[in-house]
Structures are given as C-alpha cells and as structure tokens.
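Morning!

As promised:
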Amino acid sequence: MVGAILMKKFILIYLISHSLLIANEYAIVANKSIHEASLGQIKALFLKKSSYIKNKKVVPVNLSSRNPIRIHFEKHILHMSFNRLKSYWTKQHYLGHRPPISMKSQKSIKTFIKKVDGSIGYMELKNVDDELSILYKWSE
Amino acid sequence: MKYFIILILFITILFAEDTITNQEQSYQLGNGMQVGELPLYVGGYFSLDYRYKDGENRYRIDDIAFLAYGGYEKISYMAELEYKEFYTLSEKDDAYTTQKDTRLHTERLYGDYNFNENYMLRLGKFNSQIGFWNLLPINVLRDTSSNPYTTDIIFPRFTTGLYAAYNSYNNAEIQIDLTIQHNEDLDPSYNNYTMDEHHSLGTTYTQENISLKASIGMFDKYTSTNTTQVLYYALVSLKYETEKFQFMSELGSQKSTQEYTTPYAFFAQGVYHLNQEHAGIIRLESYEDKVQNTQDNIAIFGYTYRPLYPIAFKTEYQFHKLQNENQFLFSWSVLF
C-alpha cells in the first residue's frame, strides 16, 4: 500500500519535472541598438500605441497570424486572444493605425532584426544569438 | 423592403467571401488597403438603419464615409469625409416624407507629430478625446445602433484646433491630454455644438483590463440669438474589458456661469459576447437636460450579430420614462 503511494508520487514528480525540463522558452529580441524595454513599452509597441522607446523609432515585427509562437506571444505578453486582436485592429484602422509587419519564419525575423536599426520581434530562445539584444524571456 | 434585405445579404456574402479566400498579405475587410507603395491607406464605412417610434417607420442611409491616412517618420495624417443622413424615408399613417443631405462633410482632418515615446501633437479637426465612447463613435464599431445621450449633450463631439498628449507605458499606462480650440470649426454643420472656443484637460489610467478617465473643459456655444454662452463640463469614465465581457460607464455634468444646464447625464453598458459572432447588450441611461427641460430614464436591450467583425447587424429596443419615446432600432453597418 505504502509502496503504491510512493510509486504514484514518484511518477507525479517525474512528470512535473520532465514537463518543466522540456518547456519551450521564448525571448523578445531587438536590434543591438536597443538595450532595454519594459513589458509595458513592448506591449504598446506591438499594439502600435507607440512607435518609440524613449527617442528611438522602433519597428515591431510579428510572425504570421496563425503561427503558434505568435499566438503564445499574444496570449502571454499582450494578454489578448486572436479574435480580440482582430477586433482591435479593425478599430485601429478607423484611428489610422496599421498592425506591425509580419514575417513567415523565425529565421526571416532574425535576419531582419540584425539588419534593421530599431527593430524588435520574438522567437524561441534556442534561436537567439549574440547579435541580438534579449529584452525579455518567458517560458510555457 | 424585400429588395433592401436581399441587397444587404448579397453584399454581406460578397464581402465575407473576400475575407475568407484571401490570405494575410492581401486585402481584408475592415483593414483598408494601401495605395501602391505610397504612405496612403484608404477605406471607409457605411450604415443603414431602421427605426420604429410612435407609429412612425423611418428608413435611413445614415453614413457613407471615406477614410485616407498614412504616415512617414514622425508625421502621420488622417482624413475622413462623410455623407451624413444621406437619405431618409419616413412613413406615418400612410404619409411618406423623404429627406436628402448630399453635402460631403469633413468629419476628421488632422496631422500628428510624434516627438518621442511620451509626447505627441495633433493639429486639425478630430474627435474630442473625451470619455471612451466618443473615441470610436461610428456605428460599426459601437455595440448598439444608438449613442448614449451623455455623449451628445455634455461636450462638443469634435474639436478643430490643437491636441497635445503625454503618454507613459510602464506597469500601468498613463495619459494626460490637453485640447485647445480658438478658431472656427472646420465644418460647423458637422458637430453637436456650434462653437469657436474649446479647452479641455483629461487624464487616463489603464491597468490591465481596467481604464479610468476624467476630463474637464469649457466651450463657447453659439446660441440662436447670435450670442455665445460659456459652458463648463466634467466627465468621468470607466471601462473594463475581458474576452467575453465589456463594461463601460460615463457620468457627466454641464453648467453655464449661472446654473447647471445638464445637472447629470449617465450611462452604464454591459456587453456579453456569447461567442465571436453574437453579443447581448444592456444599457441603462439617465439624464436631466435643463435647456430642453427634459428628464429621462432609459433601459436598452440589444443584440448584435457580426458574421465578421467589420460587419454588424444590430437590433435594440429602448424603454423610456418619457412618453412616446420607446423605440425599436435595427442597423446594418460595414467597415471596409
């Protein structure tokens, strides 16, 4: 009886630690010209409430709309669902604001951010290298 | 009436097909489109509505509007031209009347200069940045066909002048804004008040899903006797928004140098999204207007169907304390 309970606990601990070990990690990254930004500033940039960090013009870049990493970013950083963002951008059209440009792959975003001054995007942490500034990290 | 409904359904399906068959990079309904590679995006919206009130049927092509906007570096611009109450057909006791207004009004025309993350300046004609409702006042973006009385009697809906804002984006968003008008309205026929002076000061605080806003101001209202009357106003607003539910409330008051012209005007509205397409709305309103010598309490029950977000079919029924003011409204509106 005691052995069975211990075995259940062991399996539970193993499953939790395993899920933590394989949890995906993500990062909000920027061109080397940007060194820091708060989550509030990042949210404002991707919702086009602002186009600057202090005095620097910033170019936010999204992955394509159905990309799982983008959906994850929108849920955890912007705190908005796909449908809520659709209605948000329709309202922004009336206000004269356009959504950020989007790219198909993390590779394209990485190349773009390295080349374009003031650009900012997000990707899996494993794809980040020393030529990018990491502004924020989070995991599933 | 039959052909009217067929036309509505046909155009709706046509637009729906457009959005479904095209991918992200191409035109999507409700997002406008870019003209070539120019910093110019164009779009627009329209709305048709029907009202039954006190034995009268009213059919109306209300709004037909065109938008053009864009930006380069620190400068951006917005132009909105609109036909308002373009065509109205009313019927009561088998007597028909029609009205047309074919003037193209300047609803908004302004340029923005963004200094940096914190400061921006606007020059031109724009929606007065007072309260939350008045920022997105067009039919298709509202949850009901009607506007609350609060948004029509307390302050000028449009301002022609300067607007300056300070924004801070950290754990909470803070905005402080200032409006100054000291000139004629760019299009005096398209405003709820005729005036040549308007000053306002406001502040907004947003934390996650909750936003609070307070505005105070004064303006010079032209009266029918060609004199002006100085009016002061204050408005406080609250907005709470989640995926399923939205609550918005505004409370305002207006006074002249002698007396309260509107001692109070209030509304509270709840919207529950059953899913992406269907929403139920309840709005309660109350106001006292001493200029018109009226006091009313209103309860509004509405339902909105959006096959796509930029297309809205709305119905509502209004119960008024005032006699003969109960009414049924239906509208169809599209943003393109």
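Chain B has a mean pLDDT of 92.

Hope this helps with the figure draft.
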